Amino acid sequence: MNEKQRKATTLVNPSDKKSEKDYSKYFERIYMPPSLKDAKKRGKEEVKYHKDFEIPEQFKGMGNGRNFYIRTYGCQMNEHDTEVMAGIFMALGYEPTDRPEDANVILLNTCAIRENAENKVFGEIGHLKPLKMENPDLLLGVCGCMSQEESVVNKILKQYQYVDMIFGTHNIHRLPHILNEAYMSKEMVVEVWSKEGDVIENLPKVRKGNIKAWVNIMYGCDKFCTYCIVPYTRGKERSRRPEDIIQEVRHLAAQGYQEITLLGQNVNAYGKDFEDMEYGLGDLMDELRNIDIPRIRFTTSHPRDFDDRLIEVLAKRGNLVEHIHLPVQSGSSDILKIMARKYTREQYLELVRKIKEAIPDVALTTDIIVGFPNETEEQFEETLSLYREVEFDSAYTFIYSPREGTPAAKMKDNVPMEVKKERLQRLNNLVNEISAKKMKEYEGKIVEVLVEGESKNNPDILAGYTRKNKLVNFRGPKSAIGQLVKVKITKAKTWTLDGEMVEEAVEVN
Ligand code: SAH
Ligand code: SF4
Ligand code: F3S
User: Fold this and answer.
1) What residue segments make up the domains of the chain, in order of their start?
2) Which residues form the MTTase N-terminal domain (predicted)?
């Protein structure tokens, strides 16, 4: 947070709050909007590590007899932040509930990546109004990436005055203070730091499930792809220290977790901010490889920083799985240039070649944006041809959505929405075609499945994922849940595989 904001938030004095809403005063005294401009500044300040997070004594027991409910939107980073907030709530004495009607605090952990993601959240804030009116003691909070946008904060202040708290992605550890202030105050509590470069360790976490776990390895993003809001909402790139990550993974292994996903917006930049050592993602993976946990994944990779050292380490396999999510965004070098992705089509294909040479059976998945401003038919076709050439296992595909404050949002765009939709359809047809073909190759083969539970539609069927992240449905005993088992694939569908269990509890080296 910048100095102005620090002063602004410390000015809050609950005892002299007026009970009537007086927004002119409010804006001047306690509200300082998050600033995308400030968020963009990347200083040379050192990353500060706080290893001593504790729940302040005066807040312990705050949640006794109260329930919390968190609805999460967006990526795994947000899912994991929700686990941290759940950890803080529980440490304060709150209990979780999965029914908003039973909650004393409701949080919406939001995503700003595309406009439709934001619209969903505004719709939900609207739906929650009757609950809030019925129960004035209910606290309603908005957090996550949307809270980092000034336009969103202003809109909530004006149109959704019944919201009690807005706090940003850098303020999660402040949750006890924010809740306390919301209980004491009649005004909306807004605490959004535009800019923060710290890493906070020892945050409590309540993880969803006991089979797979997420572990942050770094925060933020400095890539500033011209269409993307994330560098503004998540702050500058900062890596956790390897010893803290290794300790967390060891601890999860000891607790019986079977799979870890290392998280970062651009995990290949891991370690670039260390001033005292040369240490990258390849080095980290090489150390994690020795921990006794069956599977380790990471997401998301940026092609630009994917180095040979990492490829060499991944080729050692063991618990490092043969699946890499490698967003390409476009197959046209011209579009990639305007997107500021900092690689060309040829460089991407060369990287894929190197990866496939080292790990011939690797499964590659990707993200693609269609209808970037002024994308021509030829440029779009280059995306199709690249897709065909790489033969990705699957892809997340999106129509470009302008995000306020990003450079691309200022570009004139001559591509009509119908054309964008039609391109998305054509791309999706290709994605489905290649996925179906790749899935077909599994028929008759035996795969290792980490069993996660009963299938959604049929409790007699178990479901789990392969090392390459394919969903497999098969008949098996409930005792297999949480275990690695061998399954023979009997039938391939476009997105899932059906099979029969052939052997229980596989030993993995
Ligand atoms: N850090 C990840 C991406 C996180 S966002 C990476 O760089 O790969 C996930 C995906 O959302 C992106 O890969 C991109 O394909 C898509 N995306 C991001 N901004 C978008 C926008 N403004 N419009 C449409 N899709 C977008
Ligand atoms: Fe966004 Fe690009 Fe950073 Fe990914 S690497 S989060 S797409 S700016
Ligand atoms: Fe969305 Fe923020 Fe993740 S914008 S995709 S929740 S980093």
Assistant:
1) 3-198, 446-503
2) 66-184
Task: Ligand 1: list residues with CB < 6 Å.
Answer: 113-114, 227-228, 230, 265-266, 300, 302, 327, 329, 367, 369, 398, 400-401, 403
Residue with the two structure tokens 């500021």: 340
SS3 44: coil
Task: Give yes or no for a contact between 398 and 425, defined as CB atoms under 8 angstroms apart.
Answer: no
- Give the pLDDT confidence of 342-379 residue by residue, as tens digits: 999 999 999 999 999 999 999 999 999 999 999 999 99
Q: What is the CA radius of gyration of the chain?
A: 24
Question: Is 266's C-beta closer than 6 angstroms to any atom of ligand 2?
Answer: yes
Ligand 1: which residue has its CA nearest to atom 19? Answer: 228
Beta carbon of 401 within 6 Å of any ligand 3 atom: no
DSSP per-residue letters across 99-119: -GGG-SEEEEEE--SSHHHHH
Closest residue to atom 18 of ligand 1, CA basis? 228
Q: What is the pTM of this model?
A: 0.91
Write out the two tokens for 89: 């709530």
Rounded CA-CA distance 441/432 in Å is 14
Residue tagged 């927004």 (tokens):
23
Residues at the annotated binding site for [4Fe-4S] cluster? 75, 111, 145, 221, 225, 228
What CATH number has the domain spanning 3-198?
3.40.50.12160
Convert the pLDDT of each residue in 174-188 to its tens digit: 999 999 999 998 899
Q: Regarding the domain delimited by 446-503, which CATH topology (the fold level of the hierarchy) does it fall under?
A: OB fold (Dihydrolipoamide Acetyltransferase, E2P) (2.40.50)
Bond preceding residue 300 cis, omega within 30 of 0: yes
| Residues β-bridged to residue 232 | none
